[in-house]
Design a protein that fits this description.
- The protein has a single domain, classed as Spore Coat Polysaccharide Biosynthesis Protein SpsA, Chain A.
- The longest helix has 18 residues.
- The protein has a 7-stranded mixed sheet, sandwiched between helices.
- It contains 7 helices and 7 strands, in the order E-H-E-H-E-H-E-E-E-H-E-H-H-H.
- It is globular and about 45 Å long.
- It is of the alpha/beta class.
- It is 38% helix and 17% strand.
């Protein structure tokens, strides 16, 4: 079994606009970059590819040691599907798709290894923060509100085994100002040491919580 990690990354200047009430554009960009770098590092020793359609993101990804899958004007679902297909052609048998806004993410490898589909929900049990799928089954991604239910249905359509992994460190994503309290949340779900390392990780990239 060959596992690869795929991280979809939106243009930094266009990402997380719903955080505007709490962060100015420069702070949002620093946060987006810092979280994305953290997610790439959470892959550990697994090969990482970033799927994007922005030159700045592509250059950033290469500096992180990641490969780039160029998927212009595909939207999130189409870009992820293209990324999975590209990694399959390169020999990956399983692909872990991890969103780039997971400030507490650690050890993405734990999501791999199951014979079917693994879904990691957000903390509301509504979205899909991380998914691991066989690369050759034509899994149809359907991100957005309610994606956990749609991805569960897609797994059933493909007649594949399903594992739902509720991992607190992967469940915290950042979309709205209330989500910026991830440092406090991290101490609650993972202990002070893990959360403080996450804060230091982001601080080293030029962003700290407001």
């Amino acid at each position: 079994m060959t596992v690869a990690v795929l991280v979809p990354v939106k243009a930094f200047a266009e990402a997380k606009v719903r955080l505007a009430p709490a962060l100015d554009p420069d702070a949002r960009m620093r946060l987006v970059r810092a979280m994305a770098e953290h997610v790439v590092r959470a892959a550990g020793g697994l090969p990482v590819s970033v799927v994007c359609d922005d030159d700045e993101v592509a250059a950033w990804a290469r500096l992180q040691g990641a490969s780039v899958v160029w998927a212009p004007e595909r939207g999130l679902n189409g870009a992820v599907e293209e990324g999975v297909a590209t990694l399959a052609a390169q020999g990956a048998t399983q692909v872990v798709v991890a969103h780039a806004d997971l400030p507490l993410a650690t050890d993405l490898a734990l999501v791999a290894g199951f014979s079917g589909v693994t879904l990691v929900p957000d903390r509301r049990d509504d979205g899909t923060n991380v998914a691991c799928v066989p690369s050759d089954v034509g899994f149809r991604f359907s991100y957005g509100p309610g994606s956990l239910a749609r991805h569960t249905a897609e797994t059933s359509r493909l007649d594949l085994p399903l594992r739902v992994l509720r991992e607190p460190l992967l469940a915290w994503d950042v979309d709205v100002p209330a989500d910026l309290d991830w440092a406090v949340a991290g101490r609650a779900v993972a202990g002070r040491a893990v959360a403080d390392r996450a804060v230091a990780d982001r601080a080293g990239a030029g962003w700290v919580p407001p």
